[in-house]
Amino acid sequence: MNTSTNTQTNAQKPKILVARAIFPEALAKLEESFEVRSNQADQILTPEELKKELAGVVGALVTGSERIDAQALAQAKDLKIVANISVGYNNFDVPAITTAGVMATNTPDVLTDTTADFGFALLMATARRITESEHWIRAGKWDKWSIVNNPLGMDLHGSTLGIIGMGRIGQGVAKRALGFGMKVIYHNRSRLSEADEKACAASYVSKEELLRTADHVVLVLPYSAQSHHTIGEKELALMKPTATLINIARGGIVDDLALAKALREKTIFAAGLDVFEGEPSVNPELLKLSNVVLAPHIASATEKTRRAMVDLAIDNLRAALGGKKPPSLINAEVFKAE
Ligand code: 8YV
Question: Which residues lie closer than 8 Å to 14 by C-beta, 6 or more apart?
Fold first, then answer.
C-alpha cells in the first residue's frame, strides 16, 4: 500500500482508500484533493487488511473482490462512502453498510454496451467453436479442409436466444440478437413494459419454457442468495442437447460441477463462461473439457469502459464527500443533504 506524498498538504486533505490498482492519471487527480492510500501493487487485501485500511478513511474505491460487510466496517468510524468500481454489488452487504450509515454506490450504464458486446462475442465463440478450433490448429491437427471432419458448430441466425435476466445488459444482448435474425425469449423477475419488450422484440416466458426451447441461453442476472445455482442439474437437463449456455453474470449462478457433467456427457452442446464459482479458481472438471470457452471475467474490459467505470466511481465518491447525492447511490436512505 502507498500513501500519497507531500505530507504537508496531506495534513489538510481528507483520507481515502483506493483498494485496487487504477489508471495512474485517475490516481494522480485524486491525490490533488485527497490523501490517498492506494494499492497500485494490486494485491487483493485480506479481510483483516481491508478492515484496517478502512479505519480512518472517509471514502473508499473498491471492486467486486473486496467484501464490504459489518466486519470490514467494524472500525470505519469516519467512512461516508464505499464506491464500487462495478455494476454488480453482491460484494456489498447493503443492510450492514446502511446500518453503518455509509453510502454505497456502483457503476451502472457506462459498461452496458461493452458487456453486451462481450456476451455476444462469447456466444459466437462458443457456438462456432472458435477457441477449440484455434487449439486444434496450434496442436498441429489441421491437415486438410473437410466437410465433416472440421469443428462443426451451431448457427446463431434463425435460432432462438433465451436471456435470463433482462436488465440493461440483457436488453443490450437482445438488441444485438435482432441483427443476427434470432428469435428472442426472456425470463426475468419482473416482466418488461410493452414498449421495452417491443424495442428488443423479446417475448416473456417461464424459466422452464426458456430452457426447453432456447438454442442459446445467456445469463445476465444479478447474483443473490435467490439466484444461487439458477442453473443446476435439473435446469441443465431441460436444455436441448444442441444448446449452448453463456454466463456473463456471476459465478455461483451456475453450478459449475453440474455444468461440467452436462458438457462431458454432451447433454448440452457447449458453454461460454466469463465468471466462475470461487474465481479466480476454475473448477478443474471444466478445465478438462474442450466444449467450454473460458474467459477471466473480462466482459467490461475495454480500456474506454474501465476508465469510465473508474471515473463514475470517483464522481460518486467526490459527490458523497462534497455533500451531494452520488449519481449512482444504492442506499438512498443514507444520504442526508448538507
Ligand atoms: C467488474 C462486473 O469489472 O461490473 C460488474 O458487475 O462484473 C465487472 O464489470 C468486476 O465486477 C470487478 O469489480
Answer: 33, 34, 35, 58, 59, 321
Tell the residue number behind the cell numbers 461460454, with chain if given.
272
Q: Are 237 and 90 in contact (CB under 8 A)?
A: no
Q: Of ligand 1's atoms, which has the minimum distance to the CA of residue 300?
A: 9
User: Annotated catalytic, 187?
Assistant: no
How many Å apart are CA 289 and CA 302, to the nearest integer?
28
Q: Report d(CA 216, CA 210) in Å as an integer.
A: 10
Q: List, as own/partner pairs, every contact residues 324-327 make where C-beta atoms lie below 8 angstroms and the sequence separation is at least 24, other chains included.
A: 326/81, 326/83, 326/103, 326/105, 327/105
Residue from 63, 67, 68, 86 to probe ligand 1 pocket by mutation (most atoms less than 8 Å from CB): 86
Contact 215, 161 (CB under 8 A): yes
Residue range 201-252, pLDDT digits in tens: 999 999 999 999 999 999 999 999 999 999 999 999 999 999 999 999 999 9
Sequence-distant (6+) residues with CB within 8 A of 218 are: 119, 123, 161, 162, 163, 164, 170, 173, 246, 248
Instruction: Name the residue among 331, 219, 318, 324 with its Cα closest to residue 276.
Output: 219
The pTM assigned to this predicted structure is: 0.96
Domains of the chain, start order: 2-108+303-337 (3.40.50.720), 112-294 (3.40.50.720)
Sign of CA dihedral 29, 34, 39, 41: positive
Cβ pair 299, 113 in contact under 8 A: no
Mean pLDDT of all residues in the chain? 96
